[in-house]
Q: What sequence folds into this?
């Protein structure tokens, strides 16, 4: 069910309508016309949902899964769960469902059904999308397919660069010295939870933890509770985007550090790592009561040189 704000109106309502039209018409005969109307001539797809699978498949000669993965998952249906609108940005949280019946970035058809989360952060200006940022749960997608990352002919593993964005302190400076609206106060409270690992105690009850799959793997394999502080003792956060509407704040951030301690059986590598994450936080009376967090786990495993850990 879509988490909607009944008080949304004007430009915010129009932007949401455009975002939902773009998403819901994917895979239909109307899509080419919808794209002409919705996508700006300078539309920038900053990040694709299957960034890592696509990057590792590049130049390998494997069949392309086609637009919106329809050749690999022809019965794909996206189930939209939450929507947020703030300024010129719209956020969508949805589940990608479908049956794997075609080649998928080098993974031969398995016939398996998938149901994984993806988040989209879109910028819409003058009725057209000018920017799109997407992140799918690629680690869980591979796990559901029971498929390892296909090896490249050159033996390389293509890992994402470590994000370089301002830390939470820099983000908070934009709110200094002025009267804040209730929505802005919620944004400040959300950003403060990323001042340090210890500050996260103010993030409320966790409905889904970041690195969910690594946490489950660590306990199932006898490594105990995942200890990010021990694995990355210099762990720090950067805050990219804050969206607030109603009682929610969506925060795109990054988390990284130096791998100096064991992680799920991976011995310290000394590598500098960092990946994107998104937190959806619910506030009541200015206090965060719960959060739902989604981190780029496959990106982290690629940086550590163990992309298939969850399938080992």
A:
């Amino acid at each position: 069910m879509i988490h909607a704000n009944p008080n949304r109106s004007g430009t915010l309502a129009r932007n949401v309508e455009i975002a939902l039209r773009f998403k819901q018409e994917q895979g239909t005969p109307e899509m080419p016309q919808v794209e002409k109307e919705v996508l700006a001539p300078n539309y920038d797809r900053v990040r694709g949902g299957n960034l890592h699978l696509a990057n590792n498949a590049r130049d390998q000669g494997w069949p392309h899964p086609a637009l919106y993965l329809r050749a690999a998952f022809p019965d794909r249906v996206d189930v939209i769960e939450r929507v947020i609108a703030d300024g010129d940005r719209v956020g969508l949280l949805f589940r990608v469902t479908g049956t794997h019946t075609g080649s998928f970035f080098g993974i031969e058809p398995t016939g398996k059904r998938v149901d994984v989360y993806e988040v989209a952060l879109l910028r819409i200006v003058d009725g057209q999308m000018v920017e799109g940022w997407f992140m799918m749960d690629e680690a869980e997608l591979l796990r559901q397919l029971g498929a390892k990352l296909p090896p490249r002919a050159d033996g390389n593993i293509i890992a994402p660069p470590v994000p370089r964005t301002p830390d939470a302190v820099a983000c908070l400076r934009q709110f200094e010295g002025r009267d804040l609206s209730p929505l802005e106060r919620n944004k400040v409270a959300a950003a403060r939870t990323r001042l340090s690992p210890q500050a996260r105690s103010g993030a409320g009850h966790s409905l889904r933890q970041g690195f969910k799959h690594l946490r489950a793997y660590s306990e199932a394999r006898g490594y105990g509770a995942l200890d990010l502080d021990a694995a990355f003792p210099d762990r720090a956060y950067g805050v990219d985007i804050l969206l607030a509407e109603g009682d929610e704040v969506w925060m795109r951030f990054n988390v990284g550090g130096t791998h100096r301690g064991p992680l799920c059986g991976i011995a310290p590598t000394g590598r500098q790592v960092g990946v994107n994450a998104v937190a959806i936080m619910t506030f009541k009376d200015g206090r965060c009561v719960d959060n739902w967090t989604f981190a780029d786990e496959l990106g982290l495993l690629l940086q550590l040189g163990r992309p298939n850990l969850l399938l080992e």
The beta strands are 39-47, 77-86, 89-99, 113-125, 128-136, 205-208, 236-245, 248-258, 272-284, 287-295. The first helix runs from residue 10 to 24.
